[in-house]
TrEMBL record:
InterPro entries: NAD(P)-bd_dom, NAD(P)-bd_dom_sf. This is GDP-4-dehydro-6-deoxy-D-mannose reductase. It holds the Pfam family GDP_Man_Dehyd. Transmembrane segments: none annotated. Residues 3-310 form the NAD(P)-binding domain.
């Protein structure tokens, strides 16, 4: 049995897609709360349970009832920009939610043999500022986050280690770098591809808004991330941290060039001050060699393929006649 928390998010939904094919829908428990995706897209692929991980009793009941052998803990307030406005909610969801999960496992273990593997979706945001000379970032780099989201992810990361070191709960820390793909909202690729499709359909003028165009990010396809998470559950070492990163960093201008090439079009680009963060990392690029050595993982999708699939996803959503205002991604470059 497998438990996925945060099943209503982009990563969780793609993990359900993959695992439902591998183990069958009746072997997947998917908890969700305030989904950021259209849940109809994964309907019938798991046993769904609405759960707010901030409430211990609800989470405890799920773990106690199903006793999952593998747990993918993805539930989070996952937008860094939003964390500036809602730091308490971010910390409660990401830190308290993680502690609640490990406490539930600990209490069940105390009365009965129960020894699950827990893959925790940590984040490169925990590293904070990294100079050009320090990239690609290795797992032994200091955790010095720059925003409340990064702080919450650093705490989540350390909690996972602490419950392994103290109680022997098999937590594996998956330090996820920038990831995108179909169903994603709240990042530069989702915003730009969505607007590009609106332009393609003539709904808005040929202008794209962008935030910090000087920052560069390694951007991984969500399907490659899902492969890494599954491999870590099978082959990762408890207590260890593993970077999961694409191997090339892109600037916003390069992403726009890829979109323009895919659409055979050109766009006017304007800087939008509302998309700028109070503090931002100049480059985020991880060293995934530890993950590769442990699991044999290799990414299979380049950014052009990812962008192509995201454009097609937005075309389908708009073609379905859905209200474009409801589809609009959260702007969080």
């Amino acid at each position: 049995m497998i438990l996925i928390t945060g099943a209503g998010g982009m990563i969780g939904s793609h993990l359900i897609d993959r695992l439902s094919c591998l183990v069958g829908k009746d072997n997947i428990i998917a908890s969700y709360y305030k989904p950021t995706i259209d849940m109809k897209e994964i309907e019938g692929k798991a046993i769904f349970v609405e759960t707010d991980v901030r409430y211990f009793e609800d989470l405890y009941r799920i773990v106690e009832r199903y006793r999952p052998n593998f747990i993918y803990h993805l539930a989070a307030q996952s937008f860094p920009a939003l964390s500036w406005d809602r730091p308490q909610e971010t910390l409660e969801t990401n830190v308290i939610g993680t502690a609640n999960l490990f406490e539930a496992i600990k209490l069940i273990r105390a009365k009965d043999f129960y020894d699950p593997t827990v893959v925790v979706a940590c984040s490169s945001a925990a590293y904070g500022y990294v100079s050009e000379q320090e990239v690609p970032i290795k797992e032994d780099h200091a955790l010095l986050p720059l925003h409340p989201y990064g702080v919450s992810k650093a705490a989540q990361d350390l909690l996972t280690y602490q419950y392994w070191a103290t109680y022997g709960i098999k937590g594996i820390r998956a330090r996820i770098f920038n990831t995108t793909g179909p169903r994603k909202t709240g990042d530069v690729c989702s915003d730009l591809t969505f607007r590009a499709v609106q332009i393609e359909k003539g709904s808005i003028p040929p202008m794209l808004r962008a935030g910090n165009t000087k920052s560069r990010r390694a951007i991984l396809d969500v399907r490659d991330l899902v492969s890494a998470l599954i491999l870590l559950a099978q082959r990762g070492m408890p207590g260890e941290a593993y970077n999961i990163s694409a191997q090339k960093a892109y600037g916003v201008d390069e992403i726009i060039e890829i979109i323009e090439k895919e659409l055979n079009a050109s766009f006017d680009v304007q800087i939008d001050s509302t998309l700028l963060r109070p503090k931002d990392e100049p480059i985020i690029l991880g060293d995934s060699s530890k993950l590769i050595l442990a699991t044999g993982w290799r990414p299979k999708h380049d950014l052009a393929a990812t962008v192509r699939d995201m454009l097609q996803y937005w075309r389908q959503k708009l073609q379905a006649g859905l209200d474009s205002n409801k589809l609009k991604p959260v702007l969080a470059h």
